[in-house]
């Protein structure tokens, strides 16, 4: 018989992740694709996932998971680029499927190599620059407008997104640190957000949000890098809070820059 405490813990983790996915989806629509894509880069899945993992695993294990997630974020950039290219030409599920395939092609080899955090950060920076250069031509000249938010469907999609965090964090000891971090770094949060935006507001809006997400993902990379390094130097609580603060600060700076750029265009 399943332990009720385990089921309760799973439900809390799933509901917490669902809440932040729903909130970020709403913010993306309210602020527009450019700013919304940056906000999507907040650690909406990784922070709860790795935070809960800290309750179950030693800091060194979570540091390794964060380093594995940092490498996997390079594959996430491939996901976003593929989605940008496909979103204006096909439906939401084919666009996400193409992105998932691109993620898998990079994530599988990156999951089995060593994960030095600083090398992971350098790899992420290089992939991000290349993806932005390629993706820019696919969003140029697109006219994207948001429609009304469909709350019932959005809530359902958010709950489905929470399943990954609950499952991976509860099974992290079986998966191992590297694979747990890599799987948790799969852009499940953005997958749900992208499908919602595509279905509710069109491929152009979703594609522009994904393109902005290429920059916004730097916030996630900051969180993973800081956590991987700080957990080996500080107690778990302060290390997590400092990493999260650095991530939020990076998002605030990018949001201000995106807001100024949008103002300059109007």
Annotation keywords:
single chain, 13 helices, mainly alpha, globular, 266 residues
CA-CA gap between termini:
61 Å
Strand content of the residues, in percent?
A: under 5%
Structural class: mainly alpha
Summarize the amount of helix as a percent range. over 70%
β-strand number: 0
Number of helices: 13
Described by strand count, sense and barrel closure, the largest sheet is: none
Q: Pick out the low-confidence regions.
A: none
Tally of individual domains: 1
**How would you spell out the order of helices and strands?**
HHHHHHHHHHHHH
Which of globular, elongated, flat, extended, rod-shaped describes the shape? globular
Chain oligomer state: single chain
Look at the structure and give the mean pLDDT: 81
- Computed Rg: 17 Å
Write up what this structure looks like.
The chain has 266 residues and is an all-alpha fold. The protein is built from 13 helices and no strands. It starts with a helix and ends with a helix. 55% of the residues are buried. The mean pLDDT is 81.
């Amino acid at each position: 018989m399943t332990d009720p405490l385990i089921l309760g813990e799973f439900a809390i983790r799933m509901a917490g992740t669902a809440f932040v996915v729903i909130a970020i989806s709403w913010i993306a629509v309210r602020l527009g694709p450019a700013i919304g894509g940056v906000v999507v880069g907040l650690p909406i899945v990784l922070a709860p996932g790795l935070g809960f993992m800290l309750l179950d695993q030693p800091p060194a294990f979570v540091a390794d998971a964060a380093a594995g997630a940092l490498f996997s974020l390079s594959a996430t950039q491939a996901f976003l680029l593929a989605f940008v290219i496909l979103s204006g030409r096909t439906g939401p599920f084919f666009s996400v499927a193409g992105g998932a395939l691109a993620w898998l092609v990079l994530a599988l080899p990156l999951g089995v190599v060593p994960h030095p955090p600083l090398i992971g950060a350098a790899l992420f920076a290089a992939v991000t620059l290349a993806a932005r250069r390629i993706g820019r031509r696919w969003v140029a000249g697109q006219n994207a407008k948001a429609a009304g938010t469909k709350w019932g469907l959005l809530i359902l999609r958010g709950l489905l997104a929470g399943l990954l965090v609950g499952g991976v964090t509860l099974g992290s000891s079986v998966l191992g640190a590297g694979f747990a971090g890599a799987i948790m770094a799969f852009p499940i949060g953005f997958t749900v957000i992208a499908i919602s935006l595509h279905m509710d507001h069109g491929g152009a809006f979703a594609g522009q949000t994904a393109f902005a997400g290429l920059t916004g993902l730097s916030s996630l990379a900051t969180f993973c890098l800081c956590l991987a390094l700080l957990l080996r130097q500080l107690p778990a609580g302060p290390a997590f809070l400092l990493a999260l603060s650095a991530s939020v600060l990076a998002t605030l700076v990018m949001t201000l820059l995106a807001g100024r750029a949008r103002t300059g265009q109007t």
